[in-house]
Structure formats: structure tokens, C-alpha cells
């Protein structure tokens, strides 16, 4: 018996090439019948199929000598070379199916891919899906699934991708999902999950993507997440996470996206985060009790930065001149902070800059006939949104406004101390939709 099991496990992983000779045999008819039965049970719980994707799913359709006609049903794949009649994939995404997910899918013991994303399926995730021993990819995202994430999924120990985002799941994230040591992608975003982020997730050593966004998760960001050394994307925005951001996140040296925006984080932004040179997107907006300064060498330590989205925190100090060296910057959103001093002219050397919003800070500047900052921004040929409102900028309305890129759409200068008239050449900004200049 154990020899047979070993053989079965081996086969799935070696579907492409035969490394050792093993007789190709039809699986016992009972197992085939069980697969067909499981599929028909799945179909039985589908209440709506507007695109008629399941019309081929009829008992006996495509019947052949091996009784494996279901292998040609739409969405069904039987790709195991050694076990030709066994279902290995079920892919019925974007079909607008309604109904619930049958627990009988657990009888498809050779299933490695279950992708029924982007449908309108409701009901619970059957705990029986955790019984699928060969499951590698489970994609149930964008449905209307309810109830809790079954802890039993932790038994499907080969899982590499687990996507449950955009459903109506409630309850906690099961701590024992950390058993899924092969997991590379875990996305449970946009549900109504609550409770803490299990610190045990820090042991998922192959994880590259962790999506926790748009839930009701509370407590803090576990320090253990700093152990996810292959992590590329961490999205935990729009939750109720509180406490300090752990220093350990600075160890995530492969990180490209770090999004902790719209939580209740407090304390100081750990300096270690500004050391993650791989980071392209750094979002901390809307943590109104989070303070910190932008390090003086930020342009050198974050050379790949594209999006610096940190509005609505309590950043203080100056905007460092080195920001001009983070040459890939596209979005700089630092409004609603407590930044002071002048805006360094080096921002004008950011050729890809599209958005610069610095409104509602304590920035200041004074000039003679024209404002050098405005002049320097004329080189940013992709700039479409510029907010400098509610600061302490004072002097004549800079004539060089008219030399801003004609991609400019939103120009907010209100609540400063500008005087003088605006040049009629402003018409050159042909895409301008908003120009606010109120005192
Ligand atoms: C039926 O099974 C045999 C092996 O037993 C295989 O050679 C054959 O291709 C199968 N036929 C179909 C239609 O799947
Ligand atoms: C059998 O399946 C094929 C596609 O595999 C489909 O075109 C056909 O309509 C089905 N026949 C019946 C009777 O369901
Ligand atoms: C699913 O149905 C909705 C309306 O009920 C429709 O807007 C959408 O395009 C459909 N999706 C697909 C993939 O057919
Ligand atoms: C098929 O799956 C159902 C639900 O998980 C289970 O109750 C039943 O025992 C399974 N049948 C077989 C033959 O394994
Ligand atoms: C599921 O199918 C969609 C559409 O083809 C695809 O984008 C997605 O990557 C698939 N999910 C998995 C886990 O393979
Ligand atoms: C995971 O925990 C749940 C309860 O939260 C339990 O039902 C399940 O059996 C556990 N699974 C494993 C593999 O430990
Ligand atoms: C989120 O959690 C809070 C308690 O922390 C609770 O009062 C609230 O109802 C929850 N909201 C949702 C949408 O679950
Ligand atoms: C994971 O991180 C925590 C806190 O940073 C640490 O105490 C623990 O030893 C680490 N565990 C492993 C397995 O590396
Ligand atoms: C940043 O990295 C440098 C060099 O890798 C290291 O010496 C320094 O301690 C780090 N700073 C922080 C705050 O982690
Ligand atoms: C930008 O980088 C250049 C070359 O590496 C360096 O000379 C310059 O001082 C840096 N500018 C700032 C403002 O850090
Ligand atoms: C614009 O860029 C050019 C060429 O890179 C440079 O010579 C010039 O000084 C820049 N102008 C401003 C206003 O920064
Ligand atoms: C606009 O730019 C042109 C070309 O660089 C320059 O000649 C002109 O003086 C600028 N106008 C203003 C008002 O700064």
C-alpha cells in the first residue's frame, strides 16, 4: 500500500519526463467513476451558468473505452501521463457561475489546480478541500464566499498559491496555514477577516506575496514577518493594525512593495525601512500617529523608489535634497504632514515625476521675480498633479508656472501668500482641469 502511494506521488511531479520505468496503467474504474461522480456533484450545486460552460458536463458524454469522457468536459484537465483518466485540473474562471462549491471535489485526489475565480459562487469554502493531497494552486478569488477560512487547508501541504481575495470571508486567519511550507502566494485581501495576523506566517519561508489588505485585522504587524526573506510584495493596507512598525521588516531585502497605509500604526517609522534598496512602492498614508523623518540619504538608499505615498502621517523635518537621486520616482505624495523648510530644487531632476503633492505642511520659501522651484519643475515632462497648497510660500505668483508640462491637470496653490497676476500664457497648460489659487 505504501509503495503504491509513493508511486502515485512520484507520478504527478514527473508528468513531463519519465525518469524510471513504471507501467502505464489505466486507473481502476472505481476511481474514474469517483472522479466523474465528483464533477457531477460539483455541477449539481451550480445554480446558474449564464454562459453555458457546463453544457458538456453530462454523464457519459465523450465516453470512450476507458470511460474517461469527462476529461474532455470544458474546464476539466487530466494531465497526469501515468494516470490518464484522473482529473488534475478544474479551471472555470470568469464564467459567472452561481451556486456553492461541492465538498465532493475532495474526491478528485489527483487535482493539482482548482481555479474557479471570478465567478459568483457563494456559501462556505468546504473544509474538505484541505483533503486534496496534490493541490498546488487554489484560486477562489472574486466570488461571494462566506464563513471562515477552513484551518483544514493547512493539510494541503503542497499548496504553492492560495488566493481567496475579494470574497466575504470572516473570522481569523488560521495560524496553522504556516504548515503550508511550499506557499509562495497567500492572498486573503478584501474580505472581512479580523483578529491578529498570525505571527506563525513568518515561517512561510518561500512566500513572495502576502496580501492582507482591506480587512479588519487588528493588533500589530508581527515582527516575525521580517523572516520572510523572499517576500517581494507585502500589502497590509486598510486594516486596523496598531502599534509600531517592527524594525525587522528592514530585513526584507527582496521587497518591492511595502504597503501599510490606512491603519492605526504609531511610533516612529523604523530607519531600517529606508534601507531596503529594492523597494519601489512605499505606502504609509493615513497612519495619523506615525511620525518620522525622511533620511538625508534617501536617494542613495532607495534608488529604485517609484511611489512614495506617505500623506496623512506625522512626518517632520525637511525633504532631503538626495530625493533627486531616486531617479525613478513617479509619485511623491507627502501632503498632510509636518514637513518644514524649502522644497529642494532637485525634485526638478526627476524626469518621470507625475505627481507631487506637498499640501498642508509647514514648508516655506520666498523668492524675487520668479520661484526657482517652479522653474525646476518645468523639466518634469510627465507631471500632471502638483499640490503646494496650505504651506507658507510667499511672493509673486511665479511666471514660470506657464512652463510646467502641458500634461498638467491639477494645480493646487491655494492658502499660501502669493500675490500678483497670473500670466495669460497659462492657456499653454491645455490639459489643466483644476487651478486653485485661493488665499
Ligand atoms: C485508454 O487507456 C489506454 C491505456 O490503458 C490508452 O493507451 C488509451 O490512449 C486510452 N484511451 C483514451 C481514449 O483515453
Ligand atoms: C459533449 O461534450 C461536447 C464538448 O466536449 C459538447 O460540445 C457536446 O454538446 C456535449 N454533448 C452532450 C450531449 O452534452
Ligand atoms: C457577469 O455578469 C455581469 C452582470 O451580471 C456582467 O456584467 C459581466 O460581464 C459578466 N461576466 C462575464 C465574464 O461574462
Ligand atoms: C467523496 O467526498 C465526500 C465529501 O468529502 C465524502 O463524504 C465521500 O466519502 C467521498 N467518497 C469517496 C469514495 O471517497
Ligand atoms: C486562474 O485563472 C486566471 C485566468 O486565467 C489566471 O489569471 C490565474 O492566474 C489563475 N490562478 C492560478 C492560481 O493559477
Ligand atoms: C488547523 O486548525 C484548525 C482549527 O483552527 C483545525 O480544524 C485544523 O485541523 C488544523 N489543521 C492542521 C493541519 O493542523
Ligand atoms: C471590525 O472590528 C471591530 C472591532 O475591532 C468591530 O467593531 C467591527 O464591527 C468590525 N467591522 C467589520 C466590518 O467586521
Ligand atoms: C523570526 O523572527 C522573530 C522576530 O523577528 C525571531 O524572534 C525568530 O527567531 C525568527 N524565527 C525564525 C525561524 O527565523
Ligand atoms: C542600513 O544598511 C547599512 C549597510 O547595509 C547598515 O550598516 C545600517 O546599519 C543599516 N541601517 C539600518 C537603520 O538598518
Ligand atoms: C546624487 O548622486 C550623485 C552621484 O552619485 C552625487 O554626486 C550627489 O551628491 C547626489 N546628490 C544628492 C543630493 O545626494
Ligand atoms: C532641465 O534639464 C536640462 C537638461 O537636463 C538642464 O540643463 C536644465 O538646467 C534643467 N532646467 C531646470 C530648470 O532644472
Ligand atoms: C519658459 O521656458 C522658455 C524656454 O526654456 C524660456 O525661454 C522662458 O523664459 C520661460 N518662461 C518663463 C515665464 O519662465
Sheet with most strands: 16 strands, mixed
> Could you tell me how far the N terminus lies from the C terminus, measured between alpha carbons in angstroms?
83 Å
CATH topology of the domain at 37-343: the name is: Leucine-rich repeat, LRR (right-handed beta-alpha superhelix)
By CATH reckoning, the class of the domain at 37-343 would read: Alpha Beta
Mean pLDDT over all positions: 90
Output the structural class.
mainly beta
Q: How many β strands by DSSP?
A: 30
Described by the principal axes of the CA atoms, the overall outline is elongated
List all distinct small molecules, including ions and cofactors, that are bound in this structure. Answer: 2-acetamido-2-deoxy-beta-D-glucopyranose
Instruction: Characterize the quaternary organization of these chains.
Output: single chain
User: Can you give the helix content as a percent range?
Assistant: under 10%
Determine the CATH superfamily of the domain at 37-343: Ribonuclease Inhibitor
C-alpha-based Rg, rounded? 28 Å
Q: What is the second-level CATH architecture of the domain at 37-343?
A: Alpha-Beta Horseshoe
Number of H/I helices: 4
Which percent band covers the strand fraction?
Answer: 15-25%
Stretches with pLDDT under 50, minimum 5 residues = 1-23
Strand order of the largest sheet: 2-3-5-7-8-10-12-14-16-18-20-22-24-26-28-30
Molecular structure report:
The chain is mainly beta and 439 residues long. Helix content is 9%, strand content 23%. The chain contains four helices and 30 strands. Strands 2-3-5-7-8-10-12-14-16-18-20-22-24-26-28-30 form a 16-stranded mixed β-sheet, with no helix packed on it. It has an eight-stranded parallel β-sheet with strand order 15-17-19-21-23-25-27-29, with no helix packed on it. It has a three-stranded mixed β-sheet with strand order 1-4-6. Bound molecules: 2-acetamido-2-deoxy-beta-D-glucopyranose (12 copies). The site of one 2-acetamido-2-deoxy-beta-D-glucopyranose has 4 residues, from loops. Residues 51, 94, 96 line the site of one 2-acetamido-2-deoxy-beta-D-glucopyranose (NAG). It comes from Digitaria exilis. InterPro entries: Leu-rich_rpt, Leu-rich_rpt_typical-subtyp, LRR_dom_sf, LRR_N_plant-typ, LRR_R13L4/SHOC2-like, StomDev_PlantInt_Reg.
Amino acid at each position: 500500500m505504501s509503495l503504491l502511494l509513493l508511486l502515485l506521488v512520484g507520478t504527478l511531479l514527473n508528468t513531463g519526463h519519465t525518469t524510471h520505468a513504471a507501467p502505464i496503467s489505466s486507473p481502476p474504474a472505481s476511481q474514474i467513476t469517483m472522479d466523474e461522480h465528483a464533477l457531477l456533484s460539483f455541477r449539481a450545486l451550480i445554480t446558474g451558468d449564464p454562459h453555458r460552460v457546463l453544457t458538456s458536463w453530462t454523464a457519459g458524454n465523450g465516453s470512450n473505452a476507458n470511460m474517461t469522457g469527462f476529461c474532455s468536459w470544458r474546464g476539466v484537465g487530466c494531465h497526469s501521463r501515468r494516470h490518464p483518466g484522473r482529473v488534475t485540473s478544474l479551471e472555470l474562471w470568469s464564467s459567472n457561475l452561481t451556486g456553492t462549491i461541492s465538498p465532493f471535489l475532495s474526491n478528485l485526489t489527483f487535482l493539482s489546480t482548482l481555479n474557479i475565480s471570478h465567478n459568483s459562487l457563494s456559501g462556505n469554502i468546504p473544509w474538505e478541500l484541505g483533503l486534496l493531497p496534490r493541490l498546488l494552486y487554489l484560486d477562489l478569488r472574486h466570488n461571494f464566499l462566506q464563513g471562515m477560512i477552513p484551518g483544514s487547508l493547512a493539510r494541503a501541504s503542497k499548496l504553492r498559491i492560495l488566493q481567496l481575495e475579494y470574497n466575504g470571508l470572516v473570522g481569523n486567519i488560521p495560524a496553522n496555514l504556516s504548515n503550508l511550507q511550499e506557499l509562495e502566494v497567500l492572498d486573503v485581501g478584501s474580505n472581512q477577516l479580523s483578529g491578529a495576523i498570525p505571527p506563525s506566517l513568518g515561517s512561510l519561508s518561500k512566500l513572495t506575496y502576502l496580501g492582507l489588505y482591506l480587512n479588519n485585522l487588528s493588533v500589530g504587524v508581527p515582527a516575525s514577518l521580517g523572516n520572510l526573506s523572499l517576500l517581494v510584495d507585502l500589502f497590509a493596507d486598510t486594516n486596523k493594525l496598531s502599534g509600531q512598525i517592527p524594525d525587522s521588516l528592514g530585513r526584507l531585502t527582496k521587497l518591492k512593495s511595502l504597503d501599510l497605509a490606512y491603519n492605526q500604526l504609531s511610533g516612529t517609522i523604523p530607519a531600517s525601512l529606508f534601507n531596503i534598496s529594492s523597494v519601489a512602492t512605499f505606502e504609509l498614508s493615513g497612519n495619523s500617529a506615525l511620525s518620522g523623518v525622511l533620511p538625508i540619504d534617501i536617494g542613495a538608499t532607495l534608488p529604485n523608489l517609484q511611489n512614495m505615498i506617505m500623506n496623512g502621517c506625522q512626518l517632520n523635518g525637511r525633504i532631503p535634497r538626495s530625493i533627486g537621486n531616486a531617479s525613478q520616482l513617479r509619485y511623491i505624495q507627502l501632503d498632510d504632514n509636518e514637513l518644514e523648510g524649502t522644497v529642494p530644487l532637485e525634485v526638478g531632476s526627476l524626469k518621470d515625476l507625475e505627481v507631487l503633492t506637498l499640501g498642508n505642511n509647514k514648508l516655506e520659501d520666498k523668492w524675487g521675480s520668479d520661484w526657482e522651484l517652479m522653474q525646476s519643475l518645468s523639466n518634469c515632462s510627465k507631471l500632471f498633479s502638483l499640490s503646494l497648497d496650505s504651506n507658507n510660500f510667499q511672493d509673486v505668483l511665479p511666471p514660470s508656472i506657464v512652463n510646467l508640462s502641458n500634461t498638467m491637470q491639477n494645480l493646487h496653490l491655494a492658502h499660501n501668500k502669493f500675490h500678483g497676476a497670473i500670466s495669460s500664457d497659462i492657456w499653454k497648460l491645455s490639459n489643466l482641469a483644476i487651478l486653485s489659487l485661493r488665499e
